[in-house]
Amino acid sequence: MGITDTDTKGGYTGRARRSLREFFDFEEYDADVKTEVVAGITTFLTMSYIVVVNPAILGQAISIPGYSQAAVVSMLTVVTIVAAAVATLIMALYANRPFAQAPGLGLNAFFAFTVVLTLGVSWQTALAAVVVEGVLFAALTAVGARKFIIQAFPEPVKFAVGSGIGAFLALIGLQAMGVVVADPEGTYITLGNVASNPVAVLSIVGLFLTLALYARGVRGSILVGILATAGAGYAAEVAGLVAPGVLTTQFTAPVYDITPLAGAFLSGFGNVEPFGFALIVFTFFFVDFFDTAGTLTGVGQAAGFLDEDGDLPEIEKPLMADAVGTTVGGILGTSTVTTYIESATGVEEGGRTGLTALVVAILFLLSLAFVPIAAAIPAYASHIALVVIAVVMLQNITAVDWDDITHTVPAGLTILIMPFTFNIGYGIAAGIISYPVVKVAVGEWREVSVPQWFLAGAFVVYFVVQTGGVMQAAV
Predict the structure, then answer these.
(1) Three-class secondary structure assignment of 200-230
(2) Any stretches that span the bilayer, and where are they (predicted)?
């Protein structure tokens, strides 16, 4: 996309647009400012729930003498926003990719409920483990080890990741919308009472509105769907159709002084048990590594970034942004920062460059001043986008060679395990472990590379540590 006469005559605005085009290489990605901005807003609104959810989870494990729990949660809100903004800014300016970052959902639960509340490790030591993990990531990325490992993923796993993430997104979205609910006495999950649940009713209407707009090719359809659904929820409460607080969220003023959290990881290095600490770092490392790998591959596939081998060109740059984000997050006082699968919503809106991520970072920073903006978007409204993107990402399933059983098994397990275990990394692990098994079974063991054997073995060790009680015994 070249420079037009309009740009030349546009004065300051024209020069600014030209600068953006040159810096973010719009010509290569056939991008434009308006599309990138809309994509950034969409991604932010879709992932903004983490500003509320992350403090709520970590606040159950972190207590600071002399501060109320509400104050601690407020500090964690500010830390969450700052960590997300810094990490996503690095992604924008260094990696030039439309991927957004924030403290990871799932990783924060492991931090709070497993490491701190179950194993009895201090939250300061848990933060120290996060910082160590981030430093290790940065070092491995700098020498090309992370890129080498990701490129060693079996081909069927690479091409199945996008569809697996799509199924995972659908489950997350439908759960937040009240369409899918827990059923511990029967089938584990089941259909919610959608006709009697105002959240489910409004969510379903918003979902079909968004799908209709998307099918019509309306630019910004996902963003319009989110805002329209949220607006309808506020209007319903103002009109007295539902009780206050059912369809809306409350604003909370953050405590900006985060000094009790920032740097707290340093005290966490005191009196640590080396083996137990190493296992905690190992677990953080594994989960974050393969969550990030899966997200970058899956979202990169949706954006059309992958090459013919299923690899993301220059993947070391977003990997380094992820590593630095994790390190900064741990220093500030939050759990592991990771690349968000919700980035797929912005990609689907046309986001292709770091300008999308830059918009997300700016909106995170602005949310500090507006207490925060994210709280105004109810989870059911923002998660409509996840279901829409899930439907779109399922088309990636056609990239898998389903006629080859050695591709069918690892690809199928990758797709199925992700939503059923609520974890991207577990899905990748299942695919990687099964790949050499089926290759050996059909006599094609020579096609399995040494790194692929190593990855399969490493995942077996990981599952033994994670599910076999090894960590509990060591700490």
Answers:
(1) HHHHHHHHHHHHHHHHCCCCCHHHHHHHHHH
(2) 37-58, 70-95, 102-120, 126-145, 157-182, 194-215, 222-243, 263-287, 355-374, 380-399, 411-433, 453-474
In angstroms, the CA 110 to CA 291 distance is 14
Q: pLDDT of 268-301, one tens digit each?
A: 998 777 877 887 887 788 778 877 888 888 888 8
Matching residue, tokens 């992604």: 91
pTM for the whole structure: 0.74
Q: Which residues contact 219 (CB under 8 A, 6 or more apart)?
A: 35, 38, 349, 350
Whether 435 and 154 have beta carbons less than 8 Å apart is answered as yes
Contacts of 12 (CB under 8 A, 6+ apart): none
CA–CA gap between residue 348 and residue 392 (Å, rounded)? 8
d(CA 406, CA 415): 15
Cβ atoms within 10 Å of 119's Cβ, excluding its own = 17
Could you identify the residue written with the tokens 């920073």?
365
Q: How far apart, in whole angstroms, are the C-alpha atoms of residue 338 and residue 358?
A: 16
- Report phi then psi at 62, rounded to 5: -110, 125
Q: How many Å apart are CA 475 and CA 472, to the nearest integer?
A: 6
Query: What tens digit of pLDDT does each residue of 359-401 get?
Result: 999 999 998 886 555 456 787 887 888 888 788 878 778 888 9
Helix (H) or strand (E) holding 190: strand 188-191
Q: Which residues contact 235 (CB under 8 A, 6 or more apart)?
A: none
